[in-house]
Amino acid sequence: MAHSRSIVVSMRLAHRVRLDPTPAQQEYFRRACGVARFVYNWALAEWQRQYAAGGKPSEAALRKQLNALKGKQYPWMREVTKNAPQQAVKNLGRAYANFFEDLAKHRRGELPWKRLRFPTFKKKGRHDSFRADNGPDKHHADAVRTDGKRVRLPIVGWVAMREGVRFAGRILSATISRTADGWYASFAIEMEYQPDPRSDDTVIGVDLGITALATLSDGSKVFAPKPLRRYLQKLKRLSRSLARKQRGSCNRAKAKTKLARLYRRIADIRTDVLHKLTTSLTQYRTIVIEDLNVAGMLANRTLARAIADVGFFEFRRQLQYKAAMAGSTIVVVDRWFPSSKLCSACGAKNDALMLSERMWTCAACGTSHDRDVNAARNLARYADSSPASACGAEGTGREDDFAVKPAA
Ligand SMILES: [Zn+2]
Q1: What tens digit of pLDDT does each residue of 31-59 get?
Q2: What's the distance, CA 295 to chain centroid?
Q3: Residue 120: which domain range?
Q4: Is 346 within the bounds of a domain?
Q5: How many structural domains compose the chain?
Q6: Domain termination residue (choose one: 165, 193, 221)
Q7: pLDDT (mean) for 58-72
């Protein structure tokens, strides 16, 4: 299909990079975070005041109001990038939009009152962040840019990064944030690409799990690297010890920082493993995955399990954009499809199969199965048996463009 060569699609991607700021740059970051927090709290108080007085507060009006008075009342705001206060008011607008959305759901009886996301005042040291933008106006077209090893930010200049930005594209913004172990920049990047027109019809089924991170329908398994398993043990130990420490004590604060660092390290290793996996999967034209009930899984599982589940979000996020660029299609199988219980050799269903049974033999045809490999094969066959995959519904890497098919 020659005409598809000319199609250019754009998508937004994100990448979070650890920074190595100098002490002076850290000081600036702290100040910019302080401005963002101050403005957010100012806007929230102002919103509440205007609302109580019978007014109709809005994010746009609050930004105008702030611009009019900041020169005289808050001249120190000029010391940091002007994006910091602007974005803070926008964030508050977003928080109210979320709240009104929840409120509407509550009125329809879909959400209990205590689950509503009320905008709250920000405290120092909690989710400290500010944003620097490459706005639409051309004077600031490249206020934020990178040269591979460093990022240039307004006012503060070049800041060292621990790794390069993963995607080549236009940087829209960088949000600088602080966690227990240091400073990070989250880049929003707009990337244009030409989907690769493919003519092969290769299919791979992917079964995600805990023992093996992923089992593929070709029989191969991807395991978590050894350090990850060791860290997970350590994580259990640390969280137990944190629970024993007295609230507000110095030891508790130390244990908390340690725990946050460990979480970070685990997340980094996991992301790295997932990148290798998702990249290798895009060699297939069709990738079949299960639609897991993530909300249900998160509700009542152990810590290790919860971390594995977070990996599932990340897996899907990566797979979406990589598949879009490689011209692969993702097929999401309905979560009621009994991928584990069907015999991938003869199609008979084994209703008696227990979750603990890792190996089983089909009573109908006598084939012995590795539970996960069998599930992955059923997923691959699910795509094969469906006419939609034959004509190749194009995935574009957007959530709503997932080819979702009902269970057979
Ligand atoms: Zn069988």
Answers
A1: 999 999 999 999 999 999 999 999 999 99
A2: 15
A3: 9-193
A4: yes
A5: 2
A6: 193
A7: 92
Please give the average per-residue pLDDT across 59-72, as a whole number.
92
Could you tell me how far CA 217 lies from the centroid of its own chain?
A: 26
CB-based contact 232:304 (threshold 8 Å):
yes
The confidence score (pLDDT) of residue 258 equals 85
370-405, pLDDT tens digit by residue? 999 999 999 999 876 654 433 333 333 333 333 333
Instruction: Evaluate if residue 30 carries a pLDDT over 80.
Output: yes
| Confidence (pLDDT) at 315 | 87
Question: Ligand 1: distance of its center to the CA of 360 in Å?
Answer: 10
Rounded distance between C-alpha atoms, residue 271 and residue 259, angstroms: 18
**Terminal-residue alpha carbon distance, the chain:** 31
Which contacts qualify for 265-271: CB closer than 8 Å, 24 or more apart?
Answer: 265/231, 266/228, 266/231, 266/232, 266/235, 266/307, 267/310, 269/225, 269/227, 269/228, 269/231, 270/224, 270/228, 270/307, 270/310, 270/311, 270/314, 271/314
C-alpha 358 – ligand 1 centre gap (Å): 16
Strand pairing report for 286-290 and 203-208: parallel
Q: Are residues 78 and 24 in the same domain?
A: yes
Distance (Å, whole) CA 77 – CA 15: 28
pLDDT tens, position by position, 159-203: 999 998 888 888 999 999 998 778 999 999 988 877 777 888 899
Whether 62 and 148 map to the same domain: the answer is: yes
Same domain, 181 and 245: no
205 alpha carbon to ligand 1 midpoint, in Å? 19
Tokens of 343: 């015999």
- Ligand 1 centroid–CA 189 distance in Å is 48
Catalytic residues: 207, 290, 372
Same domain, 250 and 170: no
* Cα–ligand 1 centroid distance for 392 (angstroms): 30
How many whole angstroms separate alpha carbon 235 and alpha carbon 247?
19
pLDDT for res 302: 53
Judge if pTM exceeds 0.70: no
